[in-house]
Amino acid sequence: MPSVAVKLYSVFFKFLLKHRLQNRFQNTIDEGNGGNNTFGVTSRPEETIAAANPSFTDGVATKDIHIESFTSLSVRIFLPDSCLSDSDSKFHPNSRITAQIKKADLERRNSYGSPGTVDPSTNPESNRRSSYGCSLDADSLITKSDIGVYRGYSPSADKCRKLPVMLQFHGGGFVSGSGDSVANDFFCRRIAKLCDVIVLAVGYRLAPENKYPAAFEDGFTVLNWLAKQANLAECNRSIGNARGGGGADIKKADMHRHIADAFGASMVEPWLAAHGDPSRCVLLGVSCGANIADYVTRKAVEAGKRLDPVKVVAQVLMYPFFIGSVPTRSEIKLANSYFYDKAMCILAWKLFLPEEEFDIDHPAANPLVPGRGPPLKLMPPTLTVVAEHDWMRDRAIAYSEELRKVNVDAPVLDYKDAVHEFATLDMLLKTPEAQACAEDIAIWVKKYISLRGHEFSY
Fold this sequence. Notes:
Elements: H1 4-31, E1 60-66, E2 74-80, H2 103-107, H3 138-141, E3 163-169, H4 182-195, E4 198-203, H5 214-242, H6 248-264, H7 270-275, E5 276-286, H8 288-303, E6 312-318, H9 329-333, H10 342-352, E7 382-387, H11 393-405, E8 412-415, H12 432-449
Parallel strand pairs: 3-4, 3-5, 5-6, 6-7, 7-8
Antiparallel strand pairs: 1-2, 2-4
Helix pairs in contact: 1-10, 4-12, 5-6, 5-8
């Protein structure tokens, strides 16, 4: 059984959650229409937010990006220090960076990390921002106040380590939670280090300001954005290589480079351009985020080659927020379980689904309804994490069983004496169970993100 501390915190947590859900439901009724805010919100005032930190002080650097002009959709990038090879140790905070760093050594690198002396007096373009958004001036690369800060400097191809990319969707019943909350920040840092991946924590729009399918569409928008980033980065690299040509080709390449620099400076995300490998993409969803991850995975399967070079190779569903009209055994036995009981979750679904569409057998809520495309046999490997004291567990297990029936690798990790969100809730993040869950996820994920010839298996 869960500890006394967990039980007491669950009572307090459920009291606050019920109060907040009822207030939002009442505000929706008073306003007459709770889904008319197109821009939307991605965080609530009660959330404690962790500031982005571009340094590798704890092994992971972070930055926030607002990726859509017309909505509040954003992502937080978690970049582990393993992306830097030994040759880039002068940008690593754990190395002994001192004031004796040779300025000439920095000046020998241009925006792409290739050799070449830069003299501002003879080359006015040396102060222009590169297509990766990095100044070529050595003083702007590293200053006394920037020691250990990774500015998006792009190493040369032979020194650049590409990492898989993981899209992470936080929990909160579609109405709360945040991609940059303290708890989610801690969890994503842990996953980035254990799995050795770049994590993109998606700050999707919350209900009731933005009802279904806003959060689901935001997830797929981020996947499309990742594909565009990969294509823009490849385009810039191709144009950069074209500069090596001769004769008339040089002027043509310079003209194209000028266009690419002007366009790419504001479009290409340097951390992903330098270190992201979208052909090894994993989706991870927590609670309601698992519903979003599953939706985005299905859309990726339907899109096929249109998402190239992005390829979803696996997904992880952590205690998914599934429900249905025909109750399962756990839904009957554990209806009043810890933290998220069934009554409150139904209220959250009422806040998320439009009134005319409300149905707990909605395809967003019940993964076992017929006609929910694409065919399950086309789904990528799917790891499902469930907890013993979670009323949603049986439906998640049933979905995993359906995947296995069509020969999809779909194991279930079942944690004893665990509760819903046992590995991601703020109070429980530092428990041995939470650490073990993250490690188990890393073991499984690495089977599908390891490079060919270096596969990781049990």
